[in-house]
Amino acid sequence: MVDYSPALMTDMYEYTMLDACLRDGTADRKCVFEVFTRHLPAGRRYGVVAGTGRILDALEHFHLDDEDLKFLAERKVVSPDTIKWLENFHFSGSIKGYREGEMFFPNSPILQIEGTFGECTLLETLVLSILNYDSAVASAASRMVSAAKNRPCMDMGGRRTNEWSAVAAARAAVVGGFQGTANLLAAQLYGLKAIGTAAHCFTLVHDDERSAFESQIAALGKNTTLLVDTYNIEEAVKTAVEVAGPELGGVRIDSGDLASLAQRVRNQLDALGATNTRITVTNDLDEYALAALQTAPVDSYGVGTMLVTGSGAPTCAMVYKLTEREGADGVMAPVMKKSKDKATTPGRKLAYRSYEYNLAEAEHVISGSEDKLAGYTPDEGWKDLLVDYVDHGQIDSSWQGHDAIMRAHDYRAAALNELPITAQSLMKGDPVIPTEITVL
Amino acid sequence: MVDYSPALMTDMYEYTMLDACLRDGTADRKCVFEVFTRHLPAGRRYGVVAGTGRILDALEHFHLDDEDLKFLAERKVVSPDTIKWLENFHFSGSIKGYREGEMFFPNSPILQIEGTFGECTLLETLVLSILNYDSAVASAASRMVSAAKNRPCMDMGGRRTNEWSAVAAARAAVVGGFQGTANLLAAQLYGLKAIGTAAHCFTLVHDDERSAFESQIAALGKNTTLLVDTYNIEEAVKTAVEVAGPELGGVRIDSGDLASLAQRVRNQLDALGATNTRITVTNDLDEYALAALQTAPVDSYGVGTMLVTGSGAPTCAMVYKLTEREGADGVMAPVMKKSKDKATTPGRKLAYRSYEYNLAEAEHVISGSEDKLAGYTPDEGWKDLLVDYVDHGQIDSSWQGHDAIMRAHDYRAAALNELPITAQSLMKGDPVIPTEITVL
């Protein structure tokens, strides 16, 4: 059972700002906030959006119970009037943004949240936490899947990141192109394919390797995958085929020089008649290691540490900025901060991708007042990148759950194929298409 | 309200191994598993253990409810007999290991779990997830705290990592020497000091900076910290002191060249008579940036991204390995895998730290059978590094909760002071003391 509210998964200043704004009346001002990143991780050509469905899940449970309210009151985080306001809090604004599985670039308006200042402010930390981590994992996953060509990649990274990150990472990995995960809670919550058979300790707890293999076959059948590198790989492969016969499902190698070992094991399996026995390799793989294994006779990959840590970029540096708000005069006005190196583009945004010969050539971000944007007509063939997630507090549930994840999985593959092929290069470089900002 | 069981925060193979071992009887074999890392992140001189108290918290809730059991049955992860075995699962083994806040090095036996194979196996993924992430954050925090000298460091990183990682990171940061966190759930769950006042959107939602400052002072008092870099810092500081008077608590700078800006703002504040107004800086700080700010007139630091991502090392590469187990003959025997580059040291372990002139000179890991270890006498002055966390299923609750975290906070400072000063160098280098392994 998983039951919790994410309402306190929040930086304290969201609540202190709410408190001050409720006192002075600005908490009710209509606002537009935007999530974007100023830059991709160094050398990356594109990013992959993930986590939006989880934001919707969290929104459904975003309420404060008595214990939470008591905590805020006792710590004097907010005043008694604000406690009252929070008692029946639910988000009544609107959210639109990029699909999960969509490519993003610097200044892509990945999510836009519209509502009162009070309600939008409370979501900032949670929205950023989810998008920053999930998109980091999906972006890394996408590079790995490209490098693995058509071979399936499986998430085995749960043990190398926070126990809840592990669940989010499994989901984001599938959005990013992975086929399944070792993580059972992710499989349960999101209906993902779960994989895994045995670790070295399984072989070690038995009196010898043969009895371990016999036990595993008895429990999981001949189609299971036997781990063959606990002692001596050649002996293990011989024993494995003796025990399971040539119909053995697979073997896993988790150490050593994977390319040459895979070749030796393939030859040995073939010589033993186990020509359909698959080879899975696992051992600190990243996209570069996967690219190097393209010619090795490997059937699938288990990826751990580098997946769940974003392969060198464990966060996306996405920020949540106020871009438009109602003034004292009741009129919506674009706003921007002017901080050095951290200035923002004011106003709500539209976003399109343009194509030339079926390949993306630019991301177009159009900024302006609601009126001006309503009268804007994009060029022919530009793809509208924004979808509606929440309409005045009503969540569109078609973006949540297993089916949405699998659609995002397919969407990513299609969207990546529409980018110039350079996107799939592992060489460091600039974003593969430019982001062009137009202020109406 | 936070209510969940971590029992499925687990790789599937833990359950499939359990299933096979219950069938063949090896699930009841007594085992010793060990958590250690083969190496520190490149160039790091030491690591800081964190997360053990969270493992104990998780252990208290590690049970499978009907929904979980149904999931395992429907997915055919395990057999009906195993479902029965899992119905009343609780860990009845023993756990000992390093304190939270303790320094660790390659091959330090950070945690040893003793029990049946079945019960120890189910804990693997969860134990590693917690220790790998929490220790990565505490290790980074410790380097930052050293670089910040006596100035307080505050965690503001929640938005740049998974929403639950944010909570764990806040706790681990305090173990690693930080003073508080922006994260409210961490403050609630662990009784940590919470900090934070306002973001740029607070200034922007108001009609001008002055009314924003007035509103914040009205809500939070003159001792609050005003954010002064939304538009023009010099003007903002002038306005801030006009609004709050010289008793203004603090100002925060979140952009630009922090050292020179801090100096200018300090001079301006002093000239305005606000000589006690504190300066906080925040903006992608890491240990190197903190070291560079040592001579700038800064009073405290808010650290985000680099803290929660382990400052370049987002995981500790800790592993969970079987080192000893009961054989068919009922006798405990050391075991080891021989995988290339991933071989393990067999047998249960003792661990000590030796000193010369009050400075640590080596970590001593003594491996052997229970009998041999019982007869082992360490040299005079060696510190015993192992404490008991769980005794035959009974959790020692003194290692859980707020007080344990604050003891770990103090322990880290003392333990770091006992290492050679090189430990606090930010130059890349080897572990500051060697780990000497003795097999009895």
UniProtKB/TrEMBL annotation, chains A, B:
It comes from the Bacteria. Residues 8-132 form the Nicotinate phosphoribosyltransferase N-terminal domain. Pfam families: NAPRTase, NAPRTase_N. Transiently phosphorylated on a His residue during the reaction cycle. Phosphorylation strongly increases the affinity for substrates and increases the rate of nicotinate D-ribonucleotide production. Dephosphorylation regenerates the low-affinity form of the enzyme, leading to product release. GO terms for molecular function: glycosyltransferase activity; nicotinate phosphoribosyltransferase activity. One of its GO terms (biological process) is NAD+ biosynthetic process via the salvage pathway. InterPro entries: Aldolase_TIM (IPR013785), N/Namide_PRibTrfase (IPR041525), NAPRTase_N (IPR040727), Nic_PRibTrfase-Fam (IPR007229), Nic_PRibTrfase_pncB (IPR006405), Nicotinate_pribotase-like_C (IPR036068). Its EC number is 6.3.4.21. It catalyses: 5-phospho-alpha-D-ribose 1-diphosphate + nicotinate + ATP + H2O = nicotinate beta-D-ribonucleotide + ADP + phosphate + diphosphate. Keywords: Glycosyltransferase, Ligase, Phosphoprotein, Pyridine nucleotide biosynthesis, Transferase. Residues 153-309 form the Nicotinate/nicotinamide phosphoribosyltransferase domain. One of its GO terms (cellular component) is cytosol. The keyword Phosphoprotein applies. It is an enzyme of class 6 (ligase). Belongs to the NAPRTase family. Catalyzes the first step in the biosynthesis of NAD from nicotinic acid, the ATP-dependent synthesis of beta-nicotinate D-ribonucleotide from nicotinate and 5-phospho-D-ribose 1-phosphate. This is Nicotinate phosphoribosyltransferase. It comes from Bifidobacterium erythrocebi. The lineage of its organism: Bacteria, Bacillati, Actinomycetota, Actinomycetes, Bifidobacteriales.
